[in-house]
Amino acid sequence: MSRGARQEQAAQILGVTSRTIQRWRSRKGGYDRRNGPRTVAHQLSPTERQQVLAVANAPEYRDLSPRQIVPRLADAGQYVASESTFYRILRAEKQLAHRERCRPATHRRPKEKKATGPCQVWSWDITYLRSPVKGQYFYLYMILDVWSRKIMAARVFSHERDQNSAWLFSEAIRCHAVDPLGLVLHSDNGSAMKGSTMLATLQQLGVMPSFSRPGVSNDNPFSESLFRTLKYRPEYPAQPFESEQQAQQWVSHFVQWYNSRHLHSEIRFVTPDTRHYGQEKALLNQRKEVYESARKKNPGRWSRQTRNWEPVGAVFLNPAPKKVSEGEAQEAA
For 33-79, how does the pLDDT look when each residue is reduced to its tens digit (9 = 90+)? Predict the structure, then answer.
């Protein structure tokens, strides 16, 4: 600039503003005070990026979200990229979209019930299945273990009666050799749930009944979520079930898939059977070792700890709102 160059044009060449040059000159010397980037980027190479896309679009993974893909890769002893990296690359390639018919759902919860192990809190409900006759339905009764998400019993009936629920619950207790004393059974407020036969059965077995809040619909989130999963399965029939037997056959196949093959997002992506029968710890430890090994190979790509593969602890039905102290309230304000 001492030779006649204009300051504004010089600033454009340097990639800074005229005000920045003036500030440098006022601090003695007038030299470039930029220090350059403080961190080194650890971006994926083009080959690694293509590998992520290849995995996401492979036949066994193309119908799954990254949340399902990543733990399955860990089970196979393979680490390709983090869940967030899968999402980022798929978003950039305009491939990020729901691969099922449903959208994420929100749930309302009943009064707090706590489960720290299997067969402590069960949830059950009834849903309609379409029949060939318009206006008539088959009724699917389903009992779920809240802690493990395992379906304990599922039966299709042609009529809705409280005798059906009493029989199904008794059968679930017998088939799984469960001690019913102290077991909590949560349900909605329907007649089949609060019928005299059902309540007498629960009282005789020493089971504690729990019901949704009066006047609140869809207040049984675990069962509602299960029915949503069932009815949005790709193989769920588009046409009505021809008979009660056909409906029961389809439900039985669903139960087998759900309990033994479905990686449940709320229990660290293990199957309900794996958690229910105490096998989750070994599987999650294996995933943890896979991630720790991947971190050792490329430590620069991990700014925090590896993904949490610790088993999920207690599970709550509508945990009570946390009480905020006066000091915390003032601090938040």
Answer: 666 655 555 788 899 999 999 999 999 998 898 999 999 999 999 99
Q: C-alpha angle with apex 227: 223 to 228, nearest 5 degrees?
A: 115
Residue where the block lists tokens 């990020």: 96
For residue range 277-324, what is the model confidence (pLDDT) as tens digits?
A: 999 999 999 999 999 999 999 998 888 888 999 999 999 987 777 765
Q: Where are the alpha helices (DSSP H) in the chain?
A: 7-14, 18-26, 46-56, 66-75, 83-92, 162-175, 191-194, 196-205, 221-231, 244-260, 272-276, 280-297, 326-332
Domain limits, the chain: 1-33, 46-92, 113-267
Measured distance CA(198)–CA(192) in Å, rounded: 8
Q: Can you read off the two tokens belonging to residue 54?
A: 């290849």
With vertex at residue 14, the alpha carbon angle to CA 12 and CA 19, rounded to the nearest 5 degrees, is: 70
Q: How many CB atoms lie within 10 A of CB 159?
A: 11
The per-residue pLDDT for range 155-170, each reduced to its tens digit, is 999 999 989 999 999 9
Rounded Cα distance, 52 and 153, in Å: 39
Q: H or E stretch including 126?
A: strand 121-130
Q: Which fold has domain 113-267?
A: Nucleotidyltransferase; domain 5 (3.30.420)
Checking phi first, is residue 60 left (phi over 0); if not, alpha (psi -120 to 50) or beta?
alpha
Q: Which amino acid is at 159?
A: H
Please give the model's pTM, rounded to 2 decimal places. Answer: 0.75
CA distance 269 to 287: 11
